[in-house]
Design goal:
The chain is α/β, with parallel strands linked by helices. The longest helix has 26 residues. It has a single domain, classed as Glutaredoxin. Strand 1 and strand 2 form a beta hairpin. The chain has a 5-stranded mixed sheet with strand order 5-4-3-6-7. The protein has a two-stranded antiparallel sheet with strand order 1-2. The protein has 5 helices and 7 strands; from the N terminus they run αβββαβαβαββα. It starts with 10 loop residues before the first helix and ends with a helix.
Length: 198
């Protein structure tokens, strides 16, 4: 009785079959590296650009006062008629500490209003954070469960939005406000929003 014939793959073809997946992986990695790696991570597009700001009411940060008056929570009616810079922040967020002095400087521009959304934070810690750096916000809404952040399309704190006078989101900055982007990006977008409809 004869044994069944086996076909053996030649050594040259076998080595090619073994390296083909590695070559395919390297090609895909190169596509992702050059396609995505050169982009500004803060320029992630938002599906909310051009849409009305979320109509979520948020409670005030208890015990937060300016000049003896309680700082109000977020009422979406506050967006109408004013250019607003909305910053989503938390005391436990390291980059939020870095951007806080820049937001305090930005708050001196009386052509706009700064609104803070305090994300999943302990009230005592949030008040301490604002006491340490100064409170740039005329309105601070508390997003204790993260629902508002979902409605705003937040990827992670900090994030900053510009809302135009008609209550529409016109720009989103992912990541912290920095000395590099405050003038070239954020203030440029604020100026565009201020000129629109003026």
């Amino acid at each position: 009785m004869s044994e069944p014939a086996t076909t053996e793959i030649p050594p040259q073809r076998r080595s090619w079959l073994m390296t083909a997946p590695l070559i395919a992986f390297a090609a895909l990695a190169a596509i992702f590296w050059f396609g995505l790696g050169n982009r500004d991570p803060s320029a992630i597009p938002s599906a909310l650009i051009g849409r009305p700001a979320p109509q979520t009411m948020l409670p005030a940060l208890q015990g937060l006062v300016i000049n003896g008056a309680a700082v109000p929570g977020l009422d979406p009616a506050a967006f109408k008629g004013k250019v607003s810079v909305v910053n989503v922040w938390a005391s436990w967020c390291v980059p939020c500490h870095d951007e806080a002095p820049l937001l305090t400087q930005l708050a001196k521009d009386k052509r706009l209003q700064l609104i803070g959304i305090n994300y999943k934070d302990a009230p005592d810690n949030a008040r301490r954070f604002l006491g340490r750096y100064g409170n740039p916000f005329g309105i601070v809404g508390v997003d204790g469960n993260g629902r508002a952040a979902i409605e705003w399309g937040v990827y992670g704190v900090p994030e900053t939005f510009i809302v135009g006078r008609e209550g529409t989101i016109v720009y989103k900055l992912v990541g912290p406000v920095t000395p590099d982007n405050i003038d070239t990006v954020l203030k440029a977008e604020i100026d565009k929003a201020l000129k629109a409809g003026s």
